[in-house]
Amino acid sequence: MWRYPQVLAHRGGGTLAPENTMAGLLRGMRAGFRAIEYDVMLARDGVPVVMHDPFLGRTVPGSGHVFDYDALELAAMDAGGWFGREYEGETVPLFVEFAQFCKSHGVWMNIELKPAPGHDIETGGTVARIAAAMFAGELERAPLLSSFSMDALLAAYEVAPQLPRACLVNELPPDWERCARAVDAVAIHVNHRHLTPAQARAVKAAGFGLFCYTVNEPARAAELLGWGVDAFCTDRIDLIGPEFATRVK
Ligand code: G3P
Ligand code: MG
């Protein structure tokens, strides 16, 4: 059974503010969202930062890989100017600070573990350890950890089995149920473009939560909910609000 929010702002504030930044998070919160998805990876010094791409160049100026820099170097980089001049000076958030802000403002988190190539185990273990300590004694508010990386999920499972996990897939693979059980996942997160109604029924019949990314059209969101999809994230927080799922049901 899905016990989590049903509509999440993707990467903090969708596409209305620079992704994976405090400005994005605040934009989502201004739109009423108290549930977000965001991406976390490790810097060179093993400190997790909030970032989607494993390399610089798109959302932060520069070149090379995120893993070539220490966290404080990344935290000094401009992660907002690419989006608009008014966001210049917005920085790459440190995961601990970002998560702590979410926690203290009642924003529920789906943390996507995005390991730099070759750092899957370390990423899953580190993020899970920090999240578990942050939510010790408050497990009902704990974040859901999702990843395309089975190794990252397994590491998270070993370090903090008490935190919920979800397998993230582009397309549901034939062995999806085996993978989900291997990491004791509570849910499957799938690209809605590849999901079929029969697959949605199968995931639900097996007792897993079903989450779709990234749903940006209200009609499509309503259709997916009609298929039994429990929840989804959206870039279009202006078109699809946090109460969307309760309104269409
Ligand atoms: O977690 C769902 C979604 O964010 C996965 O894709 O590339 O947007 O991180 P991506
Ligand atoms: Mg993501």
Provide keyphrases for this structure.
single chain, 249 residues, alpha/beta, TIM Barrel, 8-stranded parallel β-barrel, 9 strands, globular, binds SN-glycerol-3-phosphate, binds magnesium ion, hydrolase, GP_PDE_dom, Glycerophosphodiester phosphodiesterase, glycerophosphodiester phosphodiesterase activity, PLC-like_Pdiesterase_TIM-brl
Quick take:
Helices cover 31% and strands 18% of the residues.
> How many strand segments?
9
Structural class: alpha/beta
* Average predicted local confidence, pLDDT: 97
Number of helices: 9
Alpha-carbon distance between the termini?
A: 17 Å
User: If classified by CATH, what would the architecture be?
Assistant: Alpha-Beta Barrel
Q: Sheet bearing the most strands, described? A: 8 strands, parallel, barrel
Q: Could you say which overall geometry the principal axes of the C-alpha atoms support?
A: globular
How much helix is in the residues? 25-40%
The kinds of small molecule bound in this structure are: SN-glycerol-3-phosphate, magnesium ion
Q: How large is the radius of gyration? A: 17 Å
CATH topology name = TIM Barrel
Element order, helices and strands?
A: EHEEHHEHEHEHEHEHEH
Strand residue content: 15-25%
How many domains? 1
Low-confidence stretches: none
Q: Which strand order do you get reading across the main beta sheet? A: 1-2-4-5-6-7-8-9
